[in-house]
């Protein structure tokens, strides 16, 4: 024991033990524990708190001594533990070596025992198999004996009491044995009857056994129905199991379905639900090409019935899963009956009624029915999969097959698409016929067709000698051949429907003299609608059907409506050109075709590019054919427009030429200027004509076509006026009048805001100066500006028209030129 003043206390010593060193405290916490009682509270030195270091030093010294002792003790224990470990490792190695030989001996004995057991098993297996055969044979013999006795009982007494006891027994196994026995008994009776021939007693025995089976089956069905009314699903399940063993369960399945409300076609009226068959206005709208009908079956009796079916099927599906061990066949039978009896009746009724309403109404109803029932089928498939009723997709396949069978007669082969084609053809022909009738006279002259044919012939003759261009010629020829065939078909259509169409054709109007944008929208909307239906109803034939729809649009609508509109416009242009010298006013009605055709081609190409071509992404030959047909048609339309514009330019030329002939000889040879007239009457007429023509072009042409047409008209006017000035004598005063006319022409051209054209017309101003300047200044005019670019002979022609002209002018002005 230590008697030091600052020896460690017991609580500190308890912390400095090897078994529980510091008792979980940290070093800082331990140091604070040592120092907590060494502060001299209240002691002050010079008004400062005093701290005595000695207690701390002594305490820490004692602690260090104790720690040193613990370290030495720990070292000793470590050395002793290492020695013990070495001893144990040595003993363990000795034990392992000793046990190794024992293990090898045991393994060898086990292998020997395993070989002996295998040898015995080989000898016993045949005995087991023989025993199993004997057991099975015994059971079969007992069953055969019971079966023969039962047959004998029915043969002799028309009954067999042991079998009846099994039927009325409470045990499920005995009832199952009865069902199996009766099933085999019926087979046996039929086989015996077929082998023995027409023995009356044998035949009677067969009938008796069958009646017994029917009696048993009917009793079970009656109990099944009672259990169903009481919602005793366990009893229903037991009876179903018996009947599945007896006859495959067909009777119990039919009984279950008949007891449910699934097959009852409830036609009772529900508030807010209407029948499509009773809505005459809707049927008219369905067959109207200009009317779009959406949500056809919304709040309609068919949709209402399908929704009710969904609820009923989901409810009965859970009952079937409880009642039947394998509900999948029951589900399939239920689905087949629902589709074959209820849904098929609805579909057939609506489709038959829609045929009477018209081809468009028929395909619209067909498509909406297909979508409606397709959505119903998809919902049912999702339900059976989600609730784990259809792990192998058997029910899903049945649903798909039943859905396909509903429309197999309509969608088989090409019968459906023939309806679509017939509908679209009828609409196109119905639009084209009034237009062709109104413009029959213009179309009969075939001015544009003849012109185009001549161009094609010239192009063909030219391309025959050029390598690589024969394909284009063949394509044009094929286009014309197909177009001719379409025209013949259109005429045949008109003959068959002439009386009906005569009633529909109204008196001719201005709107019927040119193609209609609204009618184009109707046809394109129907084409897009048709493509949408094709993608739903016949997606595997979408590419081929899209090509046929394109042919209807390009060859039927384009050839019989758009092309005929161009023919009418060209005929109008030709007629106006022929009357250019006698017409009182300038109408140029043919220009209206430009904006109409441009918009129609834009709508048509947009439809083809965004709707039809994507359908052929996986069929490059069809896609190429589509592009070729479209490009050929557009090229033909563009060429037709160019020919119409060419005829318009011919009209402008003839009209201006005629107006120039009205110029009086004295207009430019006068003594004084009329202050009431700024320019001559001819200039006024030509200016008014140019302004009026420019206004018409601005209305009907756009962008480059408008600008190029004005440039061409301006150059025609310029050349005609230049040639016109060569024919008139001009004196000094007349030169001023001529200058006023030129200024008027320039102001009209400048209003068109085409810098190129305005620059060209500066030549007129410079020529007018030739008639107003002094003779000695002419030489300076012809060497600069636009006159410098003219031939000398041309300049001489203008100068020679001065009234003061003498031959000496030429030598003085041109010198040796």
From TrEMBL:
<dbReference type="Pfam" id="PF07393">
    <property type="entry name" value="Sec10_HB"/>
</dbReference>
<keyword id="KW-0175">Coiled coil</keyword>
<dbReference type="GO" id="GO:0006887">
    <property type="term" value="P:exocytosis"/>
</dbReference>
<dbReference type="InterPro" id="IPR048625">
    <property type="entry name" value="Sec10_N"/>
</dbReference>
<feature type="domain" description="Exocyst complex component Sec10 N-terminal">
    <location>
        <begin position="53"/>
        <end position="166"/>
    </location>
</feature>
<feature type="domain" description="Exocyst complex component Sec10-like alpha-helical bundle">
    <location>
        <begin position="177"/>
        <end position="812"/>
    </location>
</feature>
<dbReference type="InterPro" id="IPR009976">
    <property type="entry name" value="Sec10-like"/>
</dbReference>
<keyword id="KW-0813">Transport</keyword>
<dbReference type="GO" id="GO:0006893">
    <property type="term" value="P:Golgi to plasma membrane transport"/>
</dbReference>
<comment type="similarity">
    <text>Belongs to the SEC10 family.</text>
</comment>
<keyword id="KW-0268">Exocytosis</keyword>
<dbReference type="InterPro" id="IPR048627">
    <property type="entry name" value="Sec10_HB"/>
</dbReference>
<dbReference type="GO" id="GO:0000145">
    <property type="term" value="C:exocyst"/>
</dbReference>
<feature type="coiled-coil region">
    <location>
        <begin position="57"/>
        <end position="91"/>
    </location>
</feature>
<protein>
    <recommendedName>
        <fullName>Exocyst complex component Sec10</fullName>
    </recommendedName>
</protein>
<dbReference type="Pfam" id="PF20667">
    <property type="entry name" value="Sec10_N"/>
</dbReference>
């Amino acid at each position: 024991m230590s008697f030091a003043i600052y020896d460690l206390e017991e609580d500190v010593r308890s912390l400095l033990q090897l078994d529980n060193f510091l008792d979980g405290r940290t070093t800082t916490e331990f140091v604070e524990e040592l120092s907590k009682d060494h502060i001299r509270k209240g002691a002050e030195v010079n008004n400062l708190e005093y701290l005595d270091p000695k207690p701390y030093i002594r305490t820490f010294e004692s602690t260090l001594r104790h720690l040193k002792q613990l370290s030495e003790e720990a070292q000793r224990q470590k050395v002793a533990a290492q020695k013990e470990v070495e001893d144990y490792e040595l003993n363990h190695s000795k034990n392992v070596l000793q046990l190794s030989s024992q293990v090898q001996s045991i393994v060898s004995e086990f292998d020997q025992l395993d070989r002996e057991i295998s040898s015995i098993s080989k000898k016993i297996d045949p005995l087991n198999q023989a025993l199993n055969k004997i057991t099975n044979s015994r059971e079969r013999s007992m069953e055969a004996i019971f079966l023969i006795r039962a047959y004998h009982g029915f043969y002799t007494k028309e009954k067999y009491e042991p079998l009846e006891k099994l039927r009325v027994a409470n045990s499920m196994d005995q009832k199952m044995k009865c069902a199996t026995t009766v099933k085999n008994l019926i087979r046996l009776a039929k086989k015996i009857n077929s082998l023995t021939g027409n023995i009356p007693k044998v035949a009677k025995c067969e009938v008796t056994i069958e009646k017994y089976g029917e009696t048993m089956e009917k009793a079970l069905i009656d109990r099944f129905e009672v259990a169903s009314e009481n919602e005793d699903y366990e009893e229903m399940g037991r009876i179903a199991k018996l009947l599945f063993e007896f006859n495959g369960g067909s009777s119990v399945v039919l009984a279950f379905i008949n007891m449910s409300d699934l097959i009852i076609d409830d036609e009772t009226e529900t508030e807010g639900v209407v029948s499509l068959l009773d809505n005459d206005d809707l049927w008219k709208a369905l067959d109207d090409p200009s009317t779009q009908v959406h949500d056809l079956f919304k709040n309609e009796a068919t949709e209402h019935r399908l929704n009710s079916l969904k609820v009923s099927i989901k409810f009965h599906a859970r009952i079937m899963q409880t009642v039947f061990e394998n509900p999948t066949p029951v589900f399939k039978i239920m689905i087949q009956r629902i589709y074959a009896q209820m849904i098929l009746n609805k579909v057939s009724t609506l489709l038959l009624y829609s045929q009477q309403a018209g081809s468009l109404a028929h395909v619209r109803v067909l498509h909406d029915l297909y979508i409606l029932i397709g959505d119903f089928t998809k919902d049912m498939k999702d339900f059976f999969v989600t609730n784990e009723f259809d792990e192998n997709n058997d029910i899903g396949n049945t649903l798909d097959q039943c859905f396909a069978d509903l429309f197999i007669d309509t969608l088989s082969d090409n019968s459906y698409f023939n309806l679509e084609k017939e509908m679209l053809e009828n609409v196109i022909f119905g639009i084209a016929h009034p237009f062709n009738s109104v413009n029959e006279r213009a179309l009969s002259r075939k001015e544009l067709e003849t012109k185009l044919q001549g161009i094609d012939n010239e192009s063909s003759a030219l391309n025959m000698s050029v390598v690589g261009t024969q394909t284009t010629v063949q394509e044009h020829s094929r286009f014309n051949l197909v177009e001719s065939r379409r025209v013949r078909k259109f005429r045949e259509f008109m003959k068959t429907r002439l009386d009906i169409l005569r009633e529909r054709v109204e008196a001719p109007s201005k709107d019927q003299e040119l193609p209609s944008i609204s009618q184009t929208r109707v046809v394109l909307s129907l084409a897009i609608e048709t493509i949408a239906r094709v993608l739903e109803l016949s997606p595997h034939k979408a590419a081929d059907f899209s090509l046929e729809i394109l042919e209807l649009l390009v060859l039927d609508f384009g050839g019989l409506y758009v092309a005929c509109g161009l023919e009418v416009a060209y005929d109008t242009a030709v007629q106006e050109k022929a009357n250019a010298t006698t017409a009182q006013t300038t109408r140029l009605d043919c220009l209206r075709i430009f904006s109409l055709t441009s918009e129609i081609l834009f709508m048509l190409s947009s439809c083809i590019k965004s709707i039809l071509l994507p359908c052929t992404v996986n069929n490059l030959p069809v896609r190429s054919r589509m592009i070729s047909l479209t490009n050929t048609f557009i090229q033909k339309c563009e060429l037709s427009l160019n020919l119409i514009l060419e005829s318009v330019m011919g009209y402008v030329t003839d009209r201006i030429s005629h107006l120039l002939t009205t110029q009086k000889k004295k207009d430019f040879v006068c003594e004084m200027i009329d202050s009431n007239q700024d320019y001559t009457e001819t200039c006024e007429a030509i200016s008014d004509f140019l302004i009026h023509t420019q206004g018409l072009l601005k209305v009907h042409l756009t962008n480059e076509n408008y600008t190029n047409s004005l440039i061409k008209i301006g150059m025609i006017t310029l050349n005609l006026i230049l040639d016109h000035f060569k024919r008139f004598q001009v004196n000094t005063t007349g030169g001023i009048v001529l200058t006023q006319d030129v200024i008027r022409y320039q102001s009209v051209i400048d209003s068109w805001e085409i810098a190129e054209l305005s620059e060209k017309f500066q030549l007129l101003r410079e020529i007018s100066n030739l008639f107003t300047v002094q003779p000695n200044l002419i030489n300076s005019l012809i060497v600069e500006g636009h006159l410098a670019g003219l031939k000398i002979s041309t300049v001489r022609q203008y100068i020679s028209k001065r009234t003061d002209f003498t031959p000496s002018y030429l030598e003085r002005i041109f010198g040796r030129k």
